[in-house]
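A reminder from the course coordinator: this example appears on the midterm review sheet, so study it carefully.

Given structure:
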């Protein structure tokens, strides 16, 4: 077995007396589509924030591509290939689709966001960044929309742009935090298909509370409950686990 691309060791986050994440040991293999699920308050978002670097753990470590990244801020993790989903609010609505993607590509290479005007002036001379941007737009199905302002995009294309922005940072692994929250069933299906289509060659960790949604797409599922790992395995194994049924449905058959 190869070394895991992402590993956590005894990862713990306490808020006062509350242990939100409790000694979590995760190992995600290269190329895997892993989902991290759990009922409300299980510690999913806190775990996501510990993995991206938005929060520091009380104790425990995060190792990515063999390197201990526990003390690194978010942008340095992105530079090392640990990408994360951005919300629509991180799309710059005053810029075109191409400029948004190029900005993300440039920021990932330079390790931080520069003032937009400075970036746009300099980036026009960076042929490799421009080529990379075109490849990402093509891959995301947005090449024909590159010159459109981001704020006039239709809903589906906005989701494409968010994913293109993640792809622009050229991640080995992408962390997705409830990417379909608030969507209709149809929008959810389209977004999951898009993730599958555009990011299928990356390692993925999807944080999600909808257990049915992850069944179709995951290679393996880790179930969190009260901050700790309750179960882990293939979708079939997890869905049949009595502890998981108890945690989700309180022992009542769904
Ligand atoms: N900044 C904070 N300060 C204090 N408590 C917090 C903080 N963030 C989260 N918590 C608590 O930690 C626990 C885990 O919360 P978290 O948001 O990680 O769970 P979750 O699984 O993402 O839940 P949900 O599905 O409802 O979003 C909860 O009891 C929550 O109230």
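Designed residues:
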């Amino acid at each position: 077995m190869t070394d895991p691309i992402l590993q956590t060791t005894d990862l713990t986050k306490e808020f006062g007396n509350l242990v939100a994440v409790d000694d979590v040991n995760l190992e995600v293999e290269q190329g895997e589509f892993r989902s991290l699920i759990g009922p409300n308050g299980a510690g999913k978002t806190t775990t996501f924030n510990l993995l991206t670097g938005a929060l520091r753990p009380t104790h425990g470590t995060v190792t990515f591509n063999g390197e201990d990244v526990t003390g690194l801020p978010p942008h340095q993790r992105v530079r090392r290939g640990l990408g994360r989903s951005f919300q629509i609010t991180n799309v710059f609505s005053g810029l075109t689709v191409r400029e948004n993607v190029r900005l993300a590509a440039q920021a990932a290479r330079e390790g931080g966001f520069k003032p937009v005007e400075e970036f746009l002036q300099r980036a026009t001379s960076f042929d490799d960044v421009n080529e990379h941007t075109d490849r990402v737009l093509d891959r995301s199905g947005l090449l024909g929309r590159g010159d459109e302002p981001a704020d006039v995009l239709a809903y589906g294309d906005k989701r494409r742009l968010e994913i293109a922005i993640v792809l622009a940072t050229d991640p080995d692994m992408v962390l997705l935090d409830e990417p379909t929250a608030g969507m209709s069933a149809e929008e959810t299906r389209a977004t999951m298909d898009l993730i599958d289509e555009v990011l299928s060659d990356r390692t993925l960790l999807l944080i999600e509370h909808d257990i049915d949604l992850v069944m179709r797409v995951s290679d393996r599922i880790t179930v969190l409950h009260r901050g700790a790992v309750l179960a882990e395995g293939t979708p079939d194994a997890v869905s049949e686990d009595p502890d998981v049924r108890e945690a989700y449905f309180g022992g009542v058959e769904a």
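The first helix runs from residue 44 to 52. The pocket of adenosine-5'-triphosphate is lined by residues 15, 18, 20, 38, 40-46, 209 (CB under 6 Å).
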